Each structure stands twice: as structure tokens, then as C-alpha cells.
UniProtKB/TrEMBL annotation:
May play the central regulatory role in sporulation. It may be an element of the effector pathway responsible for the activation of sporulation genes in response to nutritional stress. Spo0A may act in concert with spo0H (a sigma factor) to control the expression of some genes that are critical to the sporulation process. Coiled coil: none annotated. One of its GO terms (molecular function) is transcription cis-regulatory region binding. The modification 4-aspartylphosphate is found at residue 51. This is Stage 0 sporulation protein A homolog. The gene is arlR. Residues 123-220 bind DNA. Keywords: DNA-binding, Phosphoprotein, Transcription, Transcription regulation, Two-component regulatory system. It comes from the Bacteria. Residues 3-115 form the Response regulatory domain. One of its GO terms (biological process) is regulation of DNA-templated transcription. It comes from Blautia luti. Residues 123-220 form the OmpR/PhoB-type domain.
Length: 220
């Protein structure tokens, strides 16, 4: 059982989320007014669902504030799928997004995948050229300086680095890193890769290469 915070200004959406996730044994706390979230209680939750378009404060600003306080997975619920919106949201520390309207199976699969990822054991340190990955601490360093990756960005780097030289499609990365496979969410991986490369660019370094027509690989 996981404790999940769902924030959305549409009561019907919250009721549906609660109904779906209760069947999996999860305890859902519903909040329809984002300004009434008890920030001191955020550490109690294993996962947080955030709508983007809300009155008072939007999901992006709320995500930024929450990420500064807790390390649990944050997933956006959004009807906005423009690339600019996704880049903005994921760069603020969100792990993933679910487009509205979403189905029962998709919501359950996404929640299960991110919760499962949180409980994986990490116990290795890898050094790949200029990069050092401290898996037990979920940190990636370039030239001994920590790269400020979000949780999802780190997981993608870790997976590709562990399998360096191998080419993976966007669908395979979704399946291996997040635990689900959905062609409709390729943009999640595309956006994360773009954000990762932008951070590596500060060091004039690009270990993640694009293999056109196929996918990505860690080349070192």
C-alpha cells in the first residue's frame, strides 16, 4: 500500500483517481484547492499527482515548491501536451506526466511503475570516462562535480550507462526505466533526453548519442 496525494481542481477527477487506486490498496488524499496543501505533511506521501492548470497556483510552480521539500515521484496530470510545457514541467523535477483523459489501466500502470522504481536496490559505483555514477546515492558526477539531474533523468542515465554501447528505442527505455511500454508517451523520453543533454552541455560533453531511426545509446 502506498500513500498518494492527488491535487486537481476537478472533484470528479479526484473521485475517479481515488476509486481506481483504492482497488490497488493505495490510500489517496484528495486536494481540490492547491493553496490548501499542508506542505509540512508532504513527507508522508510515496507519490504525488499534480494537475497543471489550477487556480491560485499552477502545477509547475507547485511542483517546484514540493520538489524542494520531498524526493518522492511527482507525476503531472495534464491536457497540455505541447513540448514546451513538458520541458518546463520535467525540468522542474517532475518524473513523468499522464495526459487527460487517461484510462484506468494506464493510471494504475504508471503509479505501479514509479512506486516499484522507488523500491529498487542500488549498490554500485561506475566510472565511465569523465562520468562517475554513484548508484547508491543516485548521483552522477562529471569531472567530480555533481550534475543536477531530476530523478527521472538520473534513472535514464543510469540505465543507458549500465548498458553502454547498446542502442535502445524510446519504447524500450520507457519499459526498462519506468516499467511500462506505451508509444503514445515517447515524448516523455525525448524531453528527458533533451534536458539531460542541456545539462551535460555545460561541460561540453555528450555521452548519450542518438542513433537515427532507432533510439539512444551511452557512448563512452
Amino acid at each position: 500500500m502506498a500513500k498518494i496525494l492527488a491535487v486537481d481542481d476537478e472533484p470528479a477527477i479526484l473521485e475517479m483517481i481515488e476509486s481506481i487506486l483504492n482497488k490497488d490498496g493505495h490510500l489517496v488524499t484528495k486536494v481540490s484547492d492547491p493553496l490548501k496543501i499542508n506542505m509540512e505533511e508532504l513527507h508522508r506521501y510515496d507519490l504525488i499527482l499534480l494537475d497543471i492548470m489550477m487556480p491560485g497556483i499552477d502545477g509547475f510552480e507547485l511542483c517546484k515548491r514540493i520538489r524542494a521539500l520531498v524526493d518522492c515521484p511527482i507525476l503531472f496530470l495534464t491536457a497540455k501536451t505541447e513540448e514546451k510545457s513538458l520541458v518546463n514541467g520535467l525540468s522542474l523535477g517532475a518524473d513523468d506526466y499522464i495526459s487527460k483523459p487517461f484510462g484506468v489501466m494506464e493510471l494504475r500502470a504508471r503509479i505501479h511503475a514509479h512506486l516499484r522504481r522507488e523500491h529498487r536496490e542500488h549498490s554500485v559505483r561506475m566510472v565511465l570516462g569523465r562520468v562517475c555514477i554513484q548508484i547508491s546515492q543516485k548521483k552522477l558526477l562529471v569531472d567530480d562535480k555533481e550534475l543536477p539531474l531530476t530523478k527521472a533523468e538520473y534513472e535514464i542515465c543510469e540505465f543507458l550507462a549500465k548498458n553502454r554501447g547498446q542502442v535502445f528505442s524510446k519504447e524500450q527505455i520507457l519499459e526498462e526505466v519506468f516499467g511500462f511500454d506505451s508509444e503514445s508517451n515517447d515524448s516523455t523520453i525525448i524531453t528527458h533526453i533533451k534536458n539531460i543533454r542541456a545539462k551535460f552541455a555545460d561541460y561540453d560533453y555528450t555521452p548519450i548519442k542518438t542513433v537515427w531511426g532507432i533510439g539512444y545509446k551511452w557512448e563512452e
